[in-house]
Here is the input.
Amino acid sequence: MEIRKVLLFLTLFIGFTYVHTKFIMPQFMPPPQPVAENDGDEDEDTDGEDPDGEGEADADAGQGGEAEGQDDGKDNPPETVIPGHDELTATLGSLKPEDGFLLSAELSTQGASISAVHLADPRFKELNDLEQQVKVLGNNVTTDRTFTTAFKAIDEQLKDADLSLETINWKIESSSPTEVVFSILAPDKSLKLTKTYRLKPIETGEISEATRADQSAYVIEMDFTVSNLSADTQVVSYELQGPVGVLLENREHTRKYRDIKLEFNSDSDGITLTPGDLEDLQDEHRDAALENGQKLTERQVVDLVRQKDGWTEDIRYAGIDVQFFAALVSPVRAAGEEDWVDRAYPVMIMQNDSDVRLSDVSVRMVTQKAELRAKGKKNDSVTHTWQLFVGPKYATLLDPPPLEAQQVLDIGTGFFSFFGLTGLIARGMHFLLGTFHGWGIPYGLCIIMLTVLVRSCLLPISRKQAISAAKMKALQPKLNDLKAKYGDDKQKMAQAQFELWRKYDIKPLAGCLPVLLQMPIFIGLYQCLNSAVDLRLAQFLWIENLAAPDAVFDFPIPMPAIVGPHVNILPLVTVVLFLTQQKLFMPPPADEQAEMTQKMMNMMTLMFGALFWHQPAGLCVYFICSSLWGIAERKLLAGTDVKLEEVTVAPAKGGSGGGASSSKEDGNGEPPKKGFFARMAEMAEEAQKQAARAEKERKKKNKRK
Here is the structure.
């Protein structure tokens, strides 16, 4: 009996519990929030999101209606659901030029970002793996990725889940080789973000021309849309991460590292910021804080750089460039649209403690605040268009608008730009190299042809320099006589030397003039060969890459970083030829000072050899050809008759040897004006007389005392 009662009680209890839980409680309690899980099916809405984001917005907006018996909804905030999607990738473009693309971009759902960009041109291979196309973007070891976005309003909602809009996986709405669309809803369903990436295809027959002339073929365009799904007005702003992991190759020998480059739509000068410059900015903030007894975190340092060291002018482009490639971001505005970029500021992606030059740097852009009206009203969304150029540094690609990125070419800039003259020379030589190569000539021979052309144009100047050197050599016996006559009296020796030069109408500085005239040409040629993308992986004789040292073989033992791991032959040949030129054509020293000068020149030549050790093989080929040309030229000009014609020197007023230029008269019957060395001799003589008078006066005063 008792057992039957117990069984009846348990049966009634279980039945009542089931009915109460299944049918009664749901009438009084809201449904439980869905769990942020993903079963891996992109087509199923496992996280509670509506595919277009409108269903949730309508439901949230309708919760305040009379049918639900609730107020305007302010007492019941919308659901907070952490979006969850699998990490997937999509490809924009192709590595096959026949498909009509010059690049391939790998896009990731993580932050709806660009994780890597490869160039499709068959000429652009990896230096260490000629089977692979070069990867210009995405070579970083950190988790940072290009075109991720930081959105404060959404990041605050994701913070508790240890996520951010830059790390969370977005949803791929659609994908094709020409367009990929990502989207994501804010956890509170108040905002929807959409990124649309596009890449323009090229007609197959125009691929070869587009590689050098079509800037748009290397441009990835991204539309970023922020839509307000709430019933309230919202003010939004975001940060866009610029290029990350730009390729830095040939690290042992390169003189060009990752630089931040910016130019503006105003007349302001462009900006070049090296990793060392950025490190100095950060250290300044740390040191200033330490003086006040504070120690800054890395996040605080970044914030200070953002606030105090950002650029607030109207930016035309901002990005990173290396020796041969560049990745540049440009905001694209419609006609009449106001500037919506508030500032750009530099960031340190990864700092190299052993060599700051090898650090990975980038730039971030902050947009101005935009007011979004309630959903369904006008201006309830905003769209910004960004363009990312990733490609080789050809002038034909970087010069045209909208980039107009002449600064990125690294020609005609710097202290020795000679007011832009070196830039014009470098561009002209780029054109000549391309023209010669267009005739089917290898780039190594093109450099030799360029050398012959340059030295031929300089032949008149070289001839004058050779004649001046021959005159100085012929005058050497007379200089030896003066040295024997005046002994250690350097002042009288210098005065007599000036008089001798003037007597035979010799201008020593004229020998320096050709060198000065050749400086812009030399620097322009250096900039040309150091930045010529086409020399990258161009072969010549045993040289596998004219844009890097020839690296014939490796040292058998580890060497210091300043030397590098490779043995380079061309720099050694260059130095030997330089020393040979000095030995053949410099006159023997007439005194200790001249001897010391020659020793200094020999030391400088050896120092040049150390500098050439890391220079591109193409530049060494030029110097070797130029030196051989110079030796042959001097040998040919050595037979030129040089006569030392004595010029009668008129006595100066007030005594002999006064330094009048000569007794020859000009067309008006007046003696010609005194030359530079004549004036120098007069000044030296006058200084000597004044010193003698001062010494005489001093002795008189001492006698009086």
In short: The two ends are 149 Å apart (CA to CA). The first strand starts at residue 89 and ends at 93. The chain has two domains: 89-409, 421-637. Residues 1-10, 25-75, 648-669 have pLDDT under 50 and may be disordered.
